[in-house]
Amino acid sequence: MRTAFTKWGNCLLALLVALAACSSPEQQTGQPPQDSETKEVYTRRRIVVADSLIRGRVLDRNDSVLVDTRLQYLLKLPRRFPLDTLALGLLLGWDSTTVRRRIAEALPYPDAPAGYPVQLRLTAAEAKRVRRDSADWPRLAVVERHQRTYTTGAAAPVLGYLSSEAQAFYRQAKRYRRGRFYRLRNGGVETYYNGLLQGRHGYLHPLVDANGQTHGTWAKDTTFRQGQDLHLTIDVKLQAYAEKLLGNRRGYLVALDPRTGEILAYVSAPVYNAATLTAPDQAGVRAELLEHEDMPLLNRPAMLANPPGSVFKLVNAAVALQLGAISPTTTFRCDQSLISCVHRHPPGKNLTLGLKYSCNPYFYQVMERLINRVPDTLAVVDTVATRHTNLELWRRHARSFGLDSVLGVDLPREAPGFLPTPAYYDKAHRTTRWTYRSIYSLSIGQGEINLTGLQMANMAAIIANRGWYYPPHLVRSVGGSGPLPRFLIKHRTLIDSVHFAALVPGMVAVMQRGGTADASSLADVGITVAGKTGTVENDEGDDHAAFVGFAPANKPRIVVAVYIENAGFGATAAAPCATLVMEKHLRGYIAPRRKRWEKRIQHRAQNGY
């Protein structure tokens, strides 16, 4: 045993000697540097260029400050209850119910002991009153500290939080099943752009002689850089409005400018207040969010990929047009024996009418032609190889929409979604001889297809632009410069623009009389909307509602994608939310005839159904 220990010690000693031999002579001797001729010894110095780093602000597209580092006032309550909530309320200008609610929100769990430390945020006026009456309340203490302050309750997943201020949330999250999941995926722009927001100190590293003269440097100097402001693409007023439309329902809404890829509104529902995850008096609210069955802390537009439903018929039609499987005038019977339609409608005699009525048999046959298509150059047909080749060709064209891959939005995490491959079906069916009938759900955007909310919105932006897009992003400028360079790179699909133009008449017809979303038309205010509804079948409950669209149809300025879980038909649940957001953005207000409609949607959102 001793022999083995001795051998191990000898090996370790040899390793240390080797490392010492590789280090610089200065590191070996520990001697300060000196002039080779005069032998004068120099002193290493480290000089701070500037020591007043100020973290940058976060502003919306109209320069409204959303997040800033400001002085906060915290009221520390005495460790021992009971507390005279009525008297405290009179001191602060609150009623006793508000005092009890604020204290309950500050406790991490309902049965927290009476001596649990509690801090309540105060306004400057409230803090002044407490200090003025400090003689009557000797056990109350007001503490001041600088912290990131949210001036809005909206856009919580976008704004995110500063990691150093979210330590209490991290500790709470460890007690819950989803704690690690939330910690990794919800940092927003505060985390993504942390280095630019924080800035950096500048340091000089001179070698100085006894007279204070500089003789070169002993390390590389660093340049001081003040924290940069972030100017978001978000319109905070539109964001707050969109959040009222989704409220406590599960789902998402993404609105963007197709001309630039700038995200105008980004809603992940159920919504919560932006300051909740870092506020010292919101531990109880955080506990509710962590335990909530609807998972409000999940960043749905970026992280949750779902089957898109009938909105994906737009992609299938574009690919089929490009590959010559159909033309805009192609006619198919509404054959209910192939696949059923969810509603009665006139026959879809061409692509425009097929989109207008969202005819499932029509798009079943579109996809069937695409998958079973046999090139004229083949004399002998191998149907198995042909199906594999055609499915891979379909997938290659669909991926050029930015699907089955991350779009690169400026948030910490993003899911890629999924498009099936031939190998996937070979493995799933345990044979290479699967047929179109076993994968036909792709024709209506179901089955194995999964898209994120960002991909749904970007897909609509591509159609609005007739074949190209800029990656969706949340920051339009950092300091005085523009967005990150990669957001200025134009991406093109493998589909010719003429085929996207062929889709638009059908999308416009969707919003006209007889179309699946005619009730959501904005024609009365002179806005032509191009859209597509989707109703996603759900085996575990009510169907999910989906909608994508853009307006004005001829020169699009806004694209909206909406997905509401368990809400039923896309036409009745998702489309109204999308067109209200379009109208709000394009006109600034909602027409009187839709006010009752708007109020009903907001009421449902508030009650979560």
UniProtKB/TrEMBL annotation:
Residues 55-214 form the Penicillin-binding protein dimerisation domain. Residues 1-20 form the signal peptide. It holds the Pfam family Transpeptidase. Its main location: membrane. It comes from the Bacteria. Residues 251-582 form the Penicillin-binding protein transpeptidase domain. The keyword Cytoplasm does not apply. It is found in: Cell membrane; Membrane. The keyword Disulfide bond does not apply. It is a single-pass membrane protein. Keywords: Carboxypeptidase, Cell membrane, Cell shape, Cell wall biogenesis/degradation, Hydrolase, Membrane, Peptidoglycan synthesis, Protease, Signal, Transmembrane, Transmembrane helix. InterPro entries: Beta-lactam/transpept, Beta-lactam/transpept-like, PBP_dimer, PBP_dimer_sf, PCN-bd_Tpept. This is Peptidoglycan glycosyltransferase. It comes from Hymenobacter sublimis.
